[in-house]
Amino acid sequence: MDILPARTNSEAPWDLFDSDAYLEHNYRSLRSDDAQILATVRDHFLAELDGTADRSLRGIDVGAGTNLYPSLAMLPWCREITLFERSARNVAWLRTAVTGYGDNWDAFWEVLRAGNEVYARLADPRGRLTEAADVRQGDLFDGLPGSGYGIGTMFFVAESLTTAHEEFETAVDVFAGALAPGAPFAVAFMENSLGYDVGDLRFPACRIDSDDVLASLADYADQGLRVERIEIPGEPVLREGYTGMLLALGRRKGQ
Fold first, then answer.
1. Is the torsion defined by CA of 42, 209, 59, 89 positive or negative?
2. How far apart are CA 246 and CA 59, in angstroms?
3. What DSSP element (H or E) covers 202?
4. Angle (CA) 108 112 115, round 5°
5. Cα(185)–Cα(249) distance, rounded to whole angstroms?
6. Torsions phi, psi for 116 (to 5 deg)
7. pLDDT (tens digit, 9 = 90+) per residue, 113-152?
8. How far apart are CA 248 and CA 144, in angstroms?
């Protein structure tokens, strides 16, 4: 029986998500847009946390999927990183990957370590990720495993799980609400996405722009919140039906 295109998060076939196909299409090699995002996130975390690179924080990456680079970006500051994911197949992939990730991720780590000592001093990122990673399965609409995280990321999740703007806003609320006051964060979005295919299945997306991103984080972020737009590069586009990427960088309100 054909699976109808999903509109809401609960309708999407998350446990049929083809992890290998998504990895191959998106992260088998380092794209220029991901390199730009990663360098920008690196510089944001360095500016916010360089003086406290003592591995004392609890971090969280919400909707980790088959993408390790948000966790790698948090690695120098974290004693523990929760990789939170709904899809059973993605959870299985993550549990294998964090025990010794593939060579394709070395190019992503090189972006992080280039030109700064904080990442470069971490001589064995594979081993450190194995020690720090805590892969958890769950639905973010049921809440995250804990709160008070000292640093957090959520990449291409809130707008990529539903066509409903209300669910997009709720996803951002859940993520931001789990951060401790003062916690730096980085959140990435597909701009004006119309949905996406993984293997033979179609997954939903909510069309959002920078104004939507700013509005969704306004109640949680301090005055330093900014959104950077990542243009579609000259290389082949990831998929049809988006106009760029948006990267929100900030710090959770509070002392």
1. negative
2. 21
3. strand 201-203
4. 130
5. 6
6. -145, 150
7. 997 889 999 999 999 999 999 999 999 999 999 999 999 9
8. 20
